[in-house]
Amino acid sequence: MELLRSNLSRVRIPEPTNRIYKQECCISFATPRSEGGLFIDMNSFLAFGKDYVGWNYEKTRNPVYLHIKQTKKPVPEDRPLKKPTLLAIGVEGGFENHEPEYEESHSIIILPEFVSLPFPSVELPEKVRLAVDAILMAEGVERKEQVASWTADKKLVSAYAMNLQQIDNGVIVPPSGWKCCKCDKTDNLWLNLTDGMILCGRRNWDGSGGNNHAIEHYKETNYPLAVKLGTITADFEGADVFSYPEDEIVLDPLLPQHLAFFGIDFSSLQKTEMTTAEKELDQNTNFDWNRIQESGEQVEPLFGPGYTGLINLGNSCYLAATMQVVFSTSSFSSRYHKKQSLKQAFESAPADPTLDLNTQLTKLGHGLLSGKYSVLAEEKQEGIPPRMFKAVIAGSHPEFSSMRQQDALEFFLHLLDKVERANAGKPEQDPSRSFKFVVEERLQCPSGKVTYNKRVDYILSLTIPFHEAVNKEQLETFQRLKAEKSLEGKDVSADEIVRPRVPLEACLASFSAPEEVPDFYSSALNARTTAIKTAGLASFPDYLVLHMRKFVMEAGWVPKKLDVYIDVPDVIDISHMRSKGLQPGEELLPQTVAGSGVEASKLSANEDIVCQLANMGFNYLHCQKAAINTSNAGVEEAMNWLLSHMNDPDIDDPISQEAETAEVLLSFVDQSKVDTLVSFGFEEVVARKALKTSGGNIEKATDWIFNHPQVSASTDMDTTSSSAQSSTDEGLPDGGGRYKLIGLVSHIGTSTQCGHYVAHIYKDGRWVIFNDGKVGASVNPPKDMGYLYFFERLNC
Fold first, then answer.
1. 445 belongs to an annotated ligand binding site
2. How many CB atoms lie within 10 A of CB 179?
3. Residue 186 CB contacts under 8 Å (≥ 6 apart), including other chains
4. 611 is in an annotated binding site
5. How many CB atoms lie within 10 A of CB 518?
6. Average pLDDT for residues 12-17, to the nearest whole number?
7. Catalytic pick from 26, 317, 507, 623?
């Protein structure tokens, strides 16, 4: 007891705001039910398994811990079964769920000798007794986050929905091809339900997201409600409707009527639920479910290293399927398992390792690959719960932090983005680079002159050319059969349905096929015309991820999943897809302003921006200059320029043609954007170079800095846009074009936001199915039904 009294200064009584962990170790998957129980640090309130609590003592010198141990209660063999009186499971009077019961014991442990003191005990110091009582009574962080995720999905009806005024200005919203009315953003778009304006969302702290045009529009007009495009389905309650005055996602009971006002027909969505096509889709979904999950097959359970499942936390199968395939790659398994021990990750982690992505990826990697949590037992396969990893990777993301189903593709890209940022400055350690490659696009105008554009990507997204189906005769026979049965008032059975079967080679060919680009500005012809675009890969990644575009939006806003098989060989060769860059005899198009396709000498101020600034009291000429010098990016950008150039000696000079040339615009860097990047911790000179290289776009500038960690303030990187493009593939992996299939993520359901995801991975010479917590030897892997395909370069 004296030992405990001498360490009372290291014991804290938790306050309501403290994060208390008591269900899972922060660096392993040990729980109170594990053999050694769980140790709660009574200073930091972090939890550790028995094998890891010593590491925490070495790092923090915190010696006092609350030990929680849960032991399974024995079940008497002659226990009589209770007759249920309620139609419920696991509640008094309901059906028994046969889940084992546990009894919990507590003690005080003092390290490093693991001296044990019983609890409860009146001999313990009052401070210790109060601290333990507070810990046991508090709701653990794990439980809090889970409850918060569920309750966050409960929307309240907006006070502005029932009496919303809508302006009949002739706006009809198409089902696709949206773009912000005030910038070039094509994602994170919101439709204002009053006037039909489509505008981009808020800018995130790191420059990603939108350009704040939707909220600026609200401030100008006070039109209260907007719906996020891309979230609208037949289940209108699932749509994201934001109320600006209420500052939260809300429910609009009249959303179908409000959308119909702008030509978005909800009635057609509802009507299709009982059509023959919908019945067919329902039959196909049932078939998908059985085929992809291999229901009815005698799947042999597998155990050991690399065969650990992931427990579904509630619609988290998209995360489980994606992470299983990701950790089957040598880049991720090496970075977060083979080359980094749990102890190394913990020692380099901040004070709270539960908030550190590197630690939680290492924890997840060791959990999946070590075999520690995948041992042959009489009980069912359990798997491990990726709670802490999900909390870190989702962060403040509005979708991934919820308990709703998500798109596995979007999550995969989000994961790689977070991993890349976490490894900024250490490209040799960044496993996301193994997926990164450069796409090169060649555009040729009727003058014969060309231009080349490069962009970096992680996935190759492929359209499915149905006209290349190899079973056209069977499809025609099926269509005749369906027409005959329709006349008889009958439906085709699931066994009779024939799907198109398209070779993967045809999908890859469609990516590289020539494509017309209308309304292309040719600086050679000094006019708008139609150009021909072709695409290829300037580098081949270590791991090639193919995304099959199986989800489309038809006219009338009817979402449709394409029912199609893709014939995917085990080995592919994409060597013919390598781009060759500028060829001898080709002549480049003359440069345009920042590659925008608008002739530099004819750039003029956007009148809307000028008028809004002038209405604020600024000089009209100054407003014109502000709009021109920010390339008409928006009111906020122009105002920032104006405020920082009010005292320029030439601010009152007339606008000259020379002032509008490409050289002047390219050399301009908005000081407010520089200040934003500096606030992220970047050097000012580096921030200026990044903004200059990326045409003033903060998001692209941030990515440029992360992709060029070797650049310092002393490095001369003032380049033109063409040289910036040539540096996009700098240091990326490259090699031959032959790849072997190592994994696929399949989807069951009518939308990426519902249904179920399953992974199949080729391991140890056989295909293995990963279905949440279940892992088994695959009997018939659905290689023709994948949503995402993962290939590894053969010489990787």
1. no
2. 13
3. 178, 179, 180
4. no
5. 8
6. 89
7. 317
Active-site choice (258, 622, 756, 760): 756
200 known ligand binder: yes
**CA-CA distances (angstroms) from residue 26 to 110, 294, 365, 664?**
19, 35, 14, 54
- What would the pLDDT profile of 107-139 be if each residue is shown by its tens digit? 999 999 999 999 999 999 999 999 999 999 888
Please state, rounded to an integer, the average pLDDT across all residues of the chain.
81
Above pLDDT 90, what percent of the chain?
Answer: 48
Say how far apart CA 506 and CA 467 lie, in whole Å. Answer: 10
Mode of pairing for the β-strands spanning 460-462 and 543-548: parallel
In this predicted structure, the answer to whether residue 678 has a pLDDT above a threshold of 50 is: yes
Calpha distance 550→566 (Å, rounded):
11
Per-residue pLDDT tens digits for 693-721? 565 667 667 766 766 654 543 333 332 23
Rg (CA), the chain: 30
Yes or no: say if 725 and 266 are a contact pair by the CB < 8 Å rule. no
Structure tokens at 133: 């009582």
Q: Is 213 annotated as a binding residue?
A: yes
Give the orientation angle of helix 141-151 with respect to helix 387-394, to 10 degrees: 60
CB 538 within 8 A of CB 729: yes
pLDDT digits (tens, 9 = 90+) for 296-332: 567 788 999 999 999 988 888 999 999 999 999 999 9
| Beta-carbon contacts of residue 156 (< 8 Å; ≥ 6 apart) | 248, 250, 251
Q: Tell me phi and psi for residue 310, to 5 degrees.
A: -120, 125
| Per-residue confidence band for 365, with pLDDT thresholds at 50, 70 and 90 | very high
More confident residue, 743 or 637: 743
Tell me the DSSP string of 435-467: G-EEEEEEEE-TTS-EEEEEEEES-EEE---GG
Q: Percent of the chain, pLDDT > 70?
A: 77
Instruction: Identify whether 317 is a catalytic site residue.
Output: yes
Side by side, the strands of the sheet bearing 47-49 are: 47-49, 38-41, 64-72, 102-110, 115-119
Q: How far apart are CA 329 and CA 421, in angstroms?
A: 20
Reported as a single tens digit per residue, the pLDDT across 570-581 is 999 999 999 989
The neighbouring-strand residues paired with 769 are 760, 776
Four-point Cα dihedral 121, 127, 131, 137, nearest 10: 60
Triad 309, 28, 41: Cα angle to 5°:
150
Structure tokens that stand for 581 in this block: 């860059």
